[in-house]
Amino acid sequence: MVRADFDRRLEDLEAELLGLGEMVEKAILKSMDALKRRDLAIAYEVVAEDDLIDEKRFELEEKCIDLIATQQPLAIDLRTLLAVLHIAVELERMGDYAEGIGKICMIIGDDEPAETPQKLDQMASMGVAMLQRSLKSLMDRDTDLANDVWDSDDEVDALYASVCHDIFVEMGQNPKSIQAATHFLWVAHDLERIADRATNIAERVIFVVTGRIGRYKPPESTG
């Protein structure tokens, strides 16, 4: 395979990875919409469409493995292919969390009186934004943006702690809300994990650019 063909297939892989990211983003937003409105039809859609996310992940893996096995890429190209493999798994797991939220909505049903905590919406918005920025950092090979995603995870963790605190307070003040509150705790956990997975993607971007794992630290000036 000539270099131009290899580059084209690599670009196609990254484009497909972005497509998978868009599927996952849609699943997260739909699952939260279903939960807020107690819309069981949308929840069923999220759960059913998770199979498509799984299929796309395995399709990407097969294409990556084929390129690695047949072309034996070196250095930056190999790091990119390994990153695509890794990120596809992270995205698939995010899809699983969205599916989990959809299933929680189905368990709660349409007759649960408890309102969805507003901070869950904030967590979802932050997680989706982190996902978007992490994938953009990959496309642009932007370590500064990857670092920004990394730093944002602390904000989500703090919000997660606040959500859990509020839910526990509500459980203490209103024992009738305990069942619903327990479900909301699981939603908060899933959203916190989505942010963690976005951070993992950012970490992999830094690996692609620098060959190192961890938050990127620019070299210190010797002047």
Structure characterization notes:
This protein has 223 residues and is mostly helical. It has a single domain (3-210), classed as Up-down Bundle (Methane Monooxygenase Hydroxylase, Chain G, domain 1), CATH 1.20.58.220. It is built from six helices and no strands. α3 runs antiparallel to α6 and α5 runs antiparallel to α6 (178-210). The mean pLDDT is 89.
Number of domains: 1
Uncertain parts: none
What structural class is derived from the secondary structure elements? mainly alpha
Corresponding CATH superfamily: Phosphate transport system protein phou homolog 2, domain 2
Tag the structure with descriptive keywords.
6 helices, mainly alpha, Methane Monooxygenase Hydroxylase, Chain G, domain 1, 223 residues
